[in-house]
Structures are given as structure tokens and as C-alpha cells.
Design brief:
The protein is mainly alpha-helical and 125 residues long. It is built from six helices and no strands. The chain is elongated and about 95 Å long. It starts with a helix and ends with a helix.
């Protein structure tokens, strides 16, 4: 009994409760789809578990023999992504500043009058 508690503590130290439930649930699904059971269980032990795939998966998980891993993102990757976004924003600002106002063509008097009229209509004047 003591060994089981130590094993449970070791396993739980490496995974969050969400990861644990996801791993056990995934393994239970595999077992229910006729995947081989990784523990050497006798027929009477399986009958005691009522052939419940969730209980079998939990036994496998607690024994530590499941070949399932969890990939966690590292904080450094998030920092690098933020740095890339900042660099892209700087490049966009630089490009906007490079646009010279003298390159823009002045609008004709007719175009200016047309825009003034549409603005007046939009304001309800």
C-alpha cells in the first residue's frame, strides 16, 4: 500500500490534474477500442475491475508504464513571439514614415467639392 502511495505521488508531481485526466481518458478510449492492455492482469483481476477501461487505464497510469508524454510550451517561446511582433510593428512604422507627402498627388477642385458635399449629406446638414 505504501509503494502505491509513493508511486501516485511521483506520478502526480509530474502532471497537473488536467493532464492526468486527459492521459487517463485517452488511454481508456484506446483500451475500449481493443488496444492491448499494458499491465499483466489476470482474468479474475479484470473481473474485479468489471472490465472497466477507465479503471484499467488508471491502473496503467499509476504504475507509470504508459508511453504517453505531455508537451508543454516554454515561456521563452512566448517572449520570442512577442519580440517578433514588436519588430514587425517597428518595420510597419518605418514604412509608414518613409512615405513622403510630396509623392501624393493633389486633389482636383472638383474632387474636393464632391467630398465636401458627401460629408455634408452624411452629417445631415
Amino acid at each position: 500500500m505504501r509503494a502505491a502511495k509513493e508511486t501516485k505521488q511521483l506520478v502526480d508531481q509530474h502532471f497537473t490534474k488536467y493532464e492526468t485526466s486527459r492521459i487517463i481518458g485517452s488511454r481508456a478510449l484506446q483500451i475500449s477500442m481493443n488496444a492491448p492492455i499494458l499491465l499483466a492482469l489476470k482474468k479474475d483481476e479484470l473481473e474485479a475491475l468489471h472490465y472497466d477501461s477507465l479503471k484499467i487505464a488508471e491502473l496503467e497510469f499509476r504504475s507509470g508504464i504508459l508511453p504517453i508524454t505531455v508537451k508543454r510550451p516554454f515561456p521563452q517561446l512566448k517572449e520570442r513571439e512577442e519580440e517578433k511582433k514588436e519588430e514587425q510593428e517597428i518595420v510597419v512604422k518605418d514604412r509608414k514614415e518613409q512615405v513622403d507627402i510630396s509623392d501624393l498627388e493633389p486633389a482636383d477642385e472638383e474632387e474636393q467639392e464632391a467630398t465636401a458635399e458627401t460629408e455634408e449629406k452624411g452629417m445631415g446638414v
